[in-house]
Amino acid sequence: MREAALKESANEVRRMRKWKLSQIIGFVILLLVTITMLSPVWFMVTTSLKTTKEMLVFPPTLIPKVFAWGNFSELFTNTDIKFGQQYRNSLIVSIFTVIGTIISSSFVAFGFARYQARSSSFLFMLVLSTLMLPYPAIMIPQFLLFMNLGLHDSLLPLILPSFFGSAYMIFLLKQFFSTLPDELYNAGRIDGCSEFRLYWNLTLPLAGPALATVAIFSFIWSWNDLLTPVLYLDSQENFTLPVGMAAMLSSKFRLAPWNLLMAASILSVLPIMLLFAVAQKRFVEGIVLTGIK
């Protein structure tokens, strides 16, 4: 019995050693992957704090010898860049895009989720089929439409399409609205709520997680969009951040200001990080709840 117990104890020790060894190997692999993925971020931060002279040094320095904090202020003071105005343009476009997407997509999704008509399924499939249309297929007709309306070189062509709904957001919100019980709406009708009040005062307050998901997706897509602003914007005063940062590589500069570009990249990432930090909990809830149906 004693020999069996000692043998079992020795086997248990060997298993624990093997388990600890596998944990150490796994930790090392994860650490290497993390360092590899964070290396571009480190390069972006360090380059943004380098002077123009140090930026051209090869091989590049891992830590700046002199921290050039003035790169961030130069973005707003250099009249050739107009970074502050472009930052404001991007905020205006992204905020109004979020508002338009939430209002239009939630209204359409509410109709598909709560009202059953003979052709509602066909109409819903027709809306979803627009997801298969690549943007270049509608790019030219949409461009000609806004040109004829006299809206070229303004921010309106970047904002107005969001007020006509997004098929993907309609699908997300419809899945969430369908999970709300019919008894809730019957109680609202008994209390005298109109159909619009059922949507505005009953559905939207309960759809916080789904609306947060829509808001984050819409903001990120609009904030990072480069192709659409390139099509419609000509003057530098109307540029959004992606176009303005691309224009920083133009011939106005004697050499590419990579330190300023990296500083602009850091500032351009901050609103997305802030939005996700504020709405992270509801964003995760929205992803989970819209997938349950």
Task: Explain what this protein looks like in three dimensions.
With 293 residues, this protein is mainly alpha-helical. It has two domains: 38-68, no CATH class; 79-292, MetI-like (MetI-like fold, Orthogonal Bundle), CATH 1.10.3720. Helix content is 74%, strand content 0%. The longest helix is centred in the N-terminal third of the chain and has 47 residues, at 2-48. The mean pLDDT is 84.
Strand-helix topology:
Layout: H1 2-48, H2 52-55, H3 70-77, H4 83-114, H5 120-129, H6 135-148, H7 156-159, H8 167-177, H9 182-190, H10 195-206, H11 208-224, H12 227-232, H13 241-247, H14 258-292
Helix pairs in contact: 1-14, 3-14, 4-8, 4-11, 8-14, 11-14
Terminal Cα span: 57 Å
The chain-level mean pLDDT equals 84
| Poorly predicted ranges | none
Tell the overall outline: globular
- What would you give as the CATH superfamily of the largest domain? MetI-like
Quaternary arrangement of the chains shown?
single chain
The CATH architecture of the largest domain comes to: Orthogonal Bundle
Strand content: under 5%
The number of distinct structural domains comes to 2
Order of helices and strands: HHHHHHHHHHHHHH
Q: Percent helix among the residues?
A: over 70%
Radius of gyration: 27 Å
Structural class: mainly alpha
What's the story with the biggest beta sheet? none
Annotated CATH topology of the largest domain: MetI-like fold
Number of strands: 0
